[in-house]
Structures are given as C-alpha cells and as structure tokens.
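Progress report, Aim 2. The chain analyzed during this reporting quarter is listed below.
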Amino acid sequence: MRDRAIRTASSGGGRLLRGGRIPSPFGPMTALVDEHGRLTRLAFPGEVESPRWRVDMNAIIWDDQAITLINRQIDAYFAGKRRDFDLPLAPQGTPFQQKMWAALQRIPFGSSLSYGAFAARLGFPRAARAIGAANGANPISLVIPCHRLIASSGALTGYAGGLDVKRGLLEFESAAAAT
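Predicted structure tokens for the chain:
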C-alpha cells in the first residue's frame, strides 16, 4: 500500500508530495513539499476545501518531519517574531506567474498594493486583471504574500483561503508592523 502511495502522491510532473498540517489563527494550514523538501503548496482550510485545491489528499504521504522548518517559520510569523520567510520554494506556474510570485515576495510586511499599482511596478501597467489571475493561482499562500494585493478602491477581493483570512492577515501585519 505504501508503494502505491509513493507512486501516486504527486501533483503535476509526477512529483512526490509529503505533507503536514500547521496550526494558525485561521485554522490548520496544509503544507506540501516535494522530494527535495521544497514547499510546493501552502493553504488555509478554505482553499483545501475548495475545487481549486486539485490535490488528492489520500495520495499525500503525511509526514510532519518533512515540514518542520516551514512549521517553525510560520509559528514565528504568527508570534510576531518573523516578517519574511526563508524557505526553499517550488511553486508550479507559467513564466508570467513565476515572475509575479517572485515580485509579491518583495511587497513589505504590513503594507499592501492595488493590483494596478503592482502591475505597473512589474512593467505591465494595463495588466491588472492578468495580475489578479496570477495572484489567484498562487499555490503558496502566506509565504508568497498574495494577501497583500487589494482592489484600487481599497476593497478586499478574492482570496483562496477566504476574505476573512485575507482581512485577518492584513490586520495582523498592519498591527505588528506598527510595533
């Protein structure tokens, strides 16, 4: 049975996935790492329960040891002791998505940008909707801080983990950045 799980625990490209759950103020996050220990997915409960997830939960090899470093850094983040993450990442996406996700990691803790301002910063001033779509495809919530993009009106729009989680993350970061 374990051999079958090893062969089928993949999400694209035949990659072996190990996973575990990490406590957060917004419910347990699910973290998945590839065979090299690189984070491939990190999601809040709302995303894991949605059709967007597309990962066979029964095929994951559940191994809390595989996500120890991720767990430590997320614990430190929610304890207010860490503002940035230093983790090996392996998100799967198009070249445009990869560029956009890398740029998201440069938005400072405690701040936010509109989709349009972010698109302009990337050199695509008319691509706010494409930025929104790429943001929505982010497979590594929190660590790649897609929650820091908001509508130009200041409204909170779309978040795979749910708008309450997005609001909570922005409020947490804003309060922590002020101290």
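The radius of gyration is 16 Å. The helical segments are 2-8, 45-48, 68-78, 95-104, 115-121, 128-136, 163-177. These observations will guide the mutagenesis work planned for the next reporting period.
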